[in-house]
Write a structure and sequence with these properties.
By secondary structure, this protein is α+β, with helices and mostly antiparallel strands. The protein is 22% helix and 31% strand. It has eight helices and 22 strands. Strands 3, 4, 7, 9, 10, 11, 12, 13, 14 and 15 form a ten-stranded antiparallel sheet that branches. The longest helix has 38 residues, at 30-67.
Amino acid sequence: MPRTSNLRTAGAAPTFQASTGETAPGVTNTANLSSDTSFAAAVEIRAQEIADQLLKERAEALRRASSGRVFTKFDAVNDIVENQKQVVTAGVWSNGIGTLTSFYTSSTASNEQKRYYYEAYNSASEALTSEPQFSVAYGNRLGSGSDTSGQVNDSPTRAIYSQYRLLLLEPNDDIFTFANSNNSDSIYVVNFNRARIKEKLDPGNWQMNLAELSGSSVPNNVHTGSNVKVSGTGNIIKIIDDSGDTAEAFSTVGSSGRIYNAVSGTIEDGPHLDSGGNIVYYGLVYPDVGFIVLNAEMLDASASFNTVTGSDIPGNNAFKLFTAISGSPVIDSELGFSARNSETVTSTHYFVRVKNSEYNFSNNPSFVTGSVGEFKQPTFIGDPKVYVTTVGLFSERQELLAVAKLSRPVIKSFSSEVLIKVKLDF
């Protein structure tokens, strides 16, 4: 019974063949013909409605254009290009300088602060011209090389070592391990000011030069404070990372990001080899967080740091690293501390297309005269001219979100069109 009812609704003969899509010989399937004719008619009617609507919208757009337009909606497909990424590098020091050759500490730094680290500035002035560039610190896993000030386990060197261990090493690792599985309880750290490196330190584009110190001739337990001096040998240790060496490129990515080796070498020539043809390793580099961790034992052997490691002795070891860095340009003015930062900038491009019939009038009172708004310049009749100076980007609710200023005014008239690209960086 339902099958017969459906066939009747469709206006077809109640036959089994028709209901299954089959037609008996000599019998016309009137249900299918009627359905096809109705569908075609409906499509034609709908197509005509869409065409009429498009013509109406076009006519309205032309009317608005001829009478003056205030807003133009972007075409999301043709006018907006999103997620354009570009890597930008610059000198890491203030004002985009790539090489720092003058180093100063702050006269206002307290003695308590100096027990932990020294901040390096680019100017001796305490005014606004002086800005922090990086800091240096010394850490010892056992707390050696600093006094406890009468409190158990209150050792600055232990605190420094623990701080960078937690920041840089994996949760189950409590000691820094350098190349060739060389563990070290004694480390020096260069910490780049966060504002300087922006997103990250640019691997392969930094070089730190360390002047040899006079520590080899001074007893270890007194090689502190004023005894920390640059030796008269003129020897300089040059340190880079091995990111540019394909044979020794980084193979480790930890919780702090990429990890490279700090090795002997220069930016221009890459890693240097010792007399045995081997790379000399000085520590580890963490470019994504802006840290350089140096093995104190290597600096003792190569640059005579003579790191104070006695128990409960204020070694002031951090100042040795500062002295070595600041002493290199004194020996050779071209050997400062060179570094660059790296940042991925994401941009969106908006193409502002102004057709010849649009935006040819101005709301500026000087554009018209009289009570009926006649052109002040008679030559504007039939051919007005304006100058585009500013582009405003608005939300759907016509809220001003951004303003782009042109470097120079661009003339606009009925005989000219304008294409302006607005770039927003994030």
